[in-house]
Each structure stands twice: as structure tokens, then as C-alpha cells.
Amino acid sequence: MPSPPRRLVTAVGGAVVVATMLAACGSTPAPGTDGARSQSTVGPMRSVTSQPVAEDGALECPATLADERGTTVPEKPQGVDGNARLLPDREPETLVVCRYPVLDVMTGSLKAPFALESRNVVAANQRQTVVDLLTWAPRGTTEGRACTAMAGNESVHLVGATYGDAIVWVAAKADANSCSGATNGDFESRAPVGGTLERLYGDDPGPVTPPAEQPTCVGWSTGRLGDDQTLVPEGSPTVTVCRLAASGSWQETPLDEDRSAQVVTELRQLPIRPTLGMCEGADPGADDAFRLVLSYPRGPSVHVGVTPSCRPPVLGGGVESAEVGELVELVEQWSPPIPAPDPDAPVSSDGSGSPGSTVGSAGSDGSGVPAAPTGTGTGTGTEGSVDPVAPRSQPQSEPDARVTTVP
Fold first, then answer.
1. Left, alpha or beta for 332 (phi > 0: left; psi -120 to 50: alpha)?
2. pLDDT digits (tens), the chain, 407 positions
3. Is the peptide bond before 237 cis (omega within 30 degrees of 0)?
4. Least buried of 23, 62, 177, 349, by fewest C-beta within 10 Å?
């Protein structure tokens, strides 16, 4: 029998239109990223080519996936600068999420090529959640990241977005340790956005708690676009100072616009360098550690960990500073040090800490990834777990952390 008609999306006169033609096979996956970490925000501008779309008007999902790492997209970005961010900062005309299980820890039966399990066309009133997740994802690689080794099922998600003049695919892997990033073929992100996609469109989908509904200090951030170049990405964020009390509760000190601007100015004046996400030599009895949460009108927050007794003392998402300048003195005017939890306090069998313990619950920052444990570092384990070393995408010197000392 002849193959059924397949609708293709193609470019005519700079606009994306739908055509129908006979096709015997689906789209062919393009090569993955070449491993280069270009900091340029001007990428190749490719012409929009024909790509299969379904009868509902959204892109068709490839029937199978060969790459279990989630580093390959069906096509690299077309009609847009794909090296600027994972997705353009505008609403797409259509948005589809394709899910491919690549690891089943119970059966171990999944082998490449991995079959498409589900295809979800995202409704117009729900697109902003996915768009914001990918639009603001920070640049960076997951290569060399220290991670936990929890066993769990894994899936790769392909997100396909069409615009009036562009098409972009994003590949993101969801794993139990939130150690996988995402890519559109030009832009690579260290953010574990696959975890959020799995929560939204996986086997047991559920809502992602908006950041506005969470206590500022309880949440954590997977990073923000631009944090690989500065401690404070572009914008005028408001600042909250977070200190962990001996009782295990958070003391939040929100700063007004003027005080926030002073802290932001001081952070931007500090010399920076790429971070490995850990510091050494911290004094556990100094009670001098605090976290700065920088909140923006749009997109995720930025968390900066400050531990004056540690080296380096200032850790951001993608950069660190070996100096504190006048930052500590400035912050202590409005948020003086308080006794911190005892790092040697006992921990119960369920992972909760007795008064003074550093192990407890922590929320997410609307990212949908597992909460950061308040044990070692600010890693990506599940609640109650303890990471041996914080991943380099997260500031280790946070007030709820026993800072890992490197010999």
C-alpha cells in the first residue's frame, strides 16, 4: 500500500505554511552538538525547511529516538539565532512535547532505538510554563558535574516549537539525579529542565508549583540565562537575604528596591571566574554563611551562596568570586549573623533532622526538579537525601549546607 500523506511545514516567502505530500519515512535526526561552548550570542541563521507536522497542526514526533543521552534534536534551529537561548523569548504558534523512555530500572529491557511513548500538544493557555522553562535556562554543560547515583527510570523529551518564521527543537533528559541538561543543537544548557517536563508530561503528571507560591528561601534555582557570565544576570532584581537558624527554620530578610540595588551593584563589582561549584576551608562554627536570592519580574530567580570563611567565598550558578569586597559588611547592616544549625546534630531514620539539624525539606523554584536537600551542598537529590558533592551548577556555600572541604 502507498504511504499515507504526511503534512510538512515549510517556508514560503519567509512564513511557515503547511503543505501536503507523499512521504515514506519520518524526519531524520540531525547530528548532535559538536561539543563547542561558544559564548557568542550570534549563531548560524538557517533557512526554514520542510518538517513533518500532524493533522493537529503541531510538529510530528519522530517515531523513534536513537540517542539515550538526550543530546540530539531532529533538526537544529531554523529561522532564529539558536545560540542565544534554548527557545526564543516569544510565544510559539504550536508547541509539542514528545516523550521517549530510555531506561526502565525494573526490567532493563529498553534498547535503542527508543520508541515514542507519548505526544502532547501543549494548549495555548499552558505554553508559557514550558516556554519560560526553556527560554530562561542558563548556558552551560553538564560535563564533569558531580552527581548522586540514585537509580530511577529515565526519559528523553523532545520539545518542538513552530513560529511564524522559525522552527526550534529542544532535547532534554529526565533522570533520577537531575544531572542531565538540554540542547537545541546550538545552545547547551546545564539546567535539568527534563525533570520539569517529566513532571508535566510523564507517567504521573502533576502541577509544578509556581515560584510565587513558595517561601523565597525554601526554593532553589536551576539557574538563569546569563549567569555563566555574571553573578547577577541582566535586570534589576529584588534581593532576599536567607539565613538558617539553629532551629532549622529560615530567617528571610527581604530588601527594598534601594537596598537591593546596593547589593546588586556590589555583586557586579566582584571579580569573577568560572566555578567548579564547591569551596574549601569553611569554618562550620563561624555562622557567617548566607544565601542571596535575586528575584526578577520574569523568569527564574538567581541564588548566590556566600560563606566568608570558605575559598572561594562567593558562588553563583555559573561563576564564582574569590573576593567578598564590601558585600558581607553591606548585607550585615540589614541581616546580621545568627546561630546556625549544628552540623553534627543527629538525623532521624526518615531523613528529617532534630532541632539544629541541617537536614530537612526544601522546595523547588518552580522548576519541577527535586528539591535541594539541606545536607551537603545544594544538589539535585530528592528530599531527605544527601549529595556527596554539590553539582557545579549550584552554589555550594549556602546556609543550609555542610560545605564540602576539598583536601
1. alpha
2. 443 434 444 433 333 333 322 222 223 233 222 223 334 567 788 999 999 999 999 999 999 999 888 889 999 999 999 999 999 999 999 999 999 999 888 887 788 899 999 999 999 999 999 999 999 999 998 775 667 778 888 999 999 999 999 999 999 999 988 889 999 999 999 999 999 999 999 887 665 555 444 568 887 788 999 999 999 999 999 999 999 888 888 899 999 999 999 999 999 999 999 988 888 988 877 888 999 999 999 999 999 999 999 999 999 999 999 999 999 999 999 999 988 777 666 544 443 333 333 222 223 333 333 333 332 233 333 222 222 223 333 343 333 333 333 33
3. no
4. 349
